[in-house]
Amino acid sequence: MSEEDGDHHSSEATSTNSLSGSHPPDQVLETVLESVLQFLTCRRDRNAASLVCRSWHRAEAFTRSELFIGNCYSVSPARAFARFSKVRSIYIKGRPRFADFNLMPHNWGAHFRPWVSAMARAYPWLEKVYLKRISLTNDDLALLADSFHQFKELELVFCEGFGTRGLSKVAYNCRQLRVLDLSDTEVTDDNVDWISCFPEDETCLESLVFDCMENDINFDALERLVARSPLLKKLRLNRYASMRQLYQLLLRAPQLTHLGTGSFGLIENVQNMDDNQECNYYSSAFAACTSLVCLSGFKDVMPVYLPSIHPVCANLTSLNFSYTNINPQQFRSVIVHCHKLQTLWILDSVCDEGLQAASETCKDLRELRVFPVDADEDIEGPVSEVGLQAISEGCRKLQSILYFCQRMTNEAVIAMSRNCPDLLVFRLCIMGRRQPDSVTGKPMDEGFGAIVKNCQKLTRLAVSGLLTDKAFWYIGQYGKLVRTLSVAFAGDSDMGLRYVLEGCPRLQKLEIRDSPFGDAALHAGAHRYYNMRFLWMSSCRVSRQGCEEIARSMPRLVVELVRYDGEEGSFMEGDSNSFTVLYLYRSLEPPRNDAPESVTIL
Amino acid sequence: MVMRPWDPTTMISCYARKQNHSRLSMAFQGDLNLEATELRLGLPGTGDHERRTPPVGVGVTKNNKRGLPELEDGHREESTRTTKTQVVGWPPVRSYRKNCLQPKKTESESGGGVYVKVSMDGVPYLRKIDLKLYKEYPQLLKDLEEMFKLKGGEYSEREGYNRSEFMPAYEDKDGDWMLVGDVPWNMFVTSCKRLRIMKGSEL
């Protein structure tokens, strides 16, 4: 079942419009169909509806207003826009996720240009653009700002390639802008004061997120902007925002629901107060924000100021402390107030103790992410199986977990599988490669086996530690709903990968690195690749010949071989038979022509 | 080769005489590079992971820095806590996140750091730093430079501040302003109440 909007099983429906007028009953039917179908919002339902017959295909295409492109190279803009003529919002995803970890060259691809140029012609009424792992330039943003007069929402996640000049165009030209969100996105400093480019009168802004920006902004302009944006609900400042600036903004916008606090540590030399007085001073501003439910930032935190957020803790549903290096006691003093918390992102500096404190208070927790302060393999970590066990016992409603640690046991993982049966996402990263159970010395097979067996709703899984083919057998046997699987330094032989490819019918995204899977396994999965978004294999045992055979036997598959040295940050010279990354994906188009020299497309 | 009593510095200088610059840098990289200090009779560079050509047709990188022990001939046992060569992109934490985090905390279980306010002439905001995170003056000065984006001069125990535009001063327990570096480090940590970075022109 394809989940993208370029589906391969239906015939190429040319939208011949039946409004040539000769068959009134058909026309009535189509009109009725369209009126009904426009209530379908879920894209999977829409994909299913479009397969019923030509007439439904047409009607569905005509009424689809949200277009989702899961892989920007799986379909061309021209083809997508020819089918869907009334799109108002578009989601495009580009690079594969493992590219974030320095395994692909920066110029690999995923450019916005062809999409925005085509959209400018096809959808002049476009309102929303959401891009993930896409490269875009200032010119692309300028084109966007000039082409769409009703443009309302721009969200860029893990993107790069542009700067403040492009942002200023968007701020200036998009007069109906409601959302401007930059998350984990690199923005170069073009020395342009983009904040000052927003229109002078009242704005429609509801969300302004720029916490990832590494350059200073004109604070006075920001304060005036916030003052004239009565609908503003989400504001996330970058680390250059000081405590005083934050304070002033909170006074201007007590209606905020989502706040990114900036540094929470940069202080101004304005007041001659001692620490306690300063805390009370700031906490009065927080106390006025009675709608605040989501707090993040704290990028340079001075722990002594943490008490100033106490007034809002009881209402918080989401807290992001993942840049906040605080110890267990400092964390506990905050978390004990957060009874309603559903999402918690923290650093492992809070230790098992901190996790224990969270498990005691946050009974409604749905999502937990624990990041490492020290992303190193050879150290004693501050969190372990103890923290995981505590969380599993206290937070029974947990649905999603990402946990970095240095040591883990099967027992704790099994406990979590039993205590938290609602898990949808289980991502455990034991940082030492091929680390066994730290108590028994055995592989971690049983732990992950229990997860796939007991958590029957599981859709996303990331495994680590010492794993034999048995672990993969479990995944193939029980992981019937798994859509995304991430594997690193695991498995014994081709059988491991075969178990997964043959056993997991819903598998869409499979990313594997440094595991002993070779050509035989690659070929065993051939029947799956047209039904998957992509397969990534890096530093495994597949050979160039094996890849060539797959490419030959599957014409709608694009097979890319990348030769990139992440450490040197450059194209790898040498033997043309060797490569570091195999990345293959289905596509309706011939192979792209924008690949750099380190990429060979078979 | 004469066997000397095991002394890490001796071994390192021995390698430096014979060879390779990169060996030296490897020796200082990371806290415990056991290989650099291992007692051997052979020349440096033997029995080591140098570049080797992979078998033809196998998708393995030439550079063995990726550390794939199961692809080698099997005589290297993978034990759990030996120092491993760094691998690209592992653990899978994005570099933005890694770069954002503060310098490593040393063991401060009591949770009590020695926080002092740091101000700089002409700059409207001030910072607070934890003196317990540092072990010596050069570390502290380097951080101050980064924090306030200063062009640093050179500091040495003997000569004091050389060719620099700023002078860090501190207020001690008695309320006197002293130049940072005048007293031994430990005494400084216990007596420093606040720091002030003064512009060179005032001196």
TrEMBL record, chain A:
Compartment list: Nucleus
Predominant location category: nucleus
Domain COI1 F-box: 26-65
Transport inhibitor response domain segment(s): 86-131
Compositionally biased spans, kind Basic and acidic residues: 1-11
Annotated segments matching region Disordered: 1-24
Cytoplasm as UniProt keyword: no
Keywords, alphabetical: Auxin signaling pathway, Nucleus, Ubl conjugation pathway
Ranges of Polar residues composition bias in the record: 12-21
InterPro entries: COI1_F-box, Leu-rich_rpt_Cys-con_subtyp, LRR_dom_sf, Transp_inhibit
CC annotations in GO: nucleus; SCF ubiquitin ligase complex
One annotated GO biological process: SCF-dependent proteasomal ubiquitin-dependent protein catabolic process
This protein's pathway: Protein modification; protein ubiquitination
Record bears the keyword Nucleus: yes
Protein name, entry field: Transport inhibitor response 1-like protein
TrEMBL record, chain B:
Cellular localisation: Nucleus
Family the UniProt entry places it in: Belongs to the Aux/IAA family.
Annotated protein name in UniProt: Auxin-responsive protein
Function of the protein: Aux/IAA proteins are short-lived transcriptional factors that function as repressors of early auxin response genes at low auxin concentrations.
Regions of compositional bias (Basic and acidic residues) in chain numbering: 67-81
Keywords: Auxin signaling pathway, Nucleus, Repressor, Transcription, Transcription regulation
One of the record's GO cellular component terms: nucleus
Disordered: annotated span: 43-85
Chief location bin: nucleus
Residue ranges occupied by any PB1 domain in the UniProt entry: 113-200
Subunit note: Homodimers and heterodimers.
GO terms under biological process: auxin-activated signaling pathway; regulation of DNA-templated transcription
Species whose genome carries this gene: Trapa incisa
Domain of life according to the entry: Eukaryota
Entry-linked Pfam families: AUX_IAA
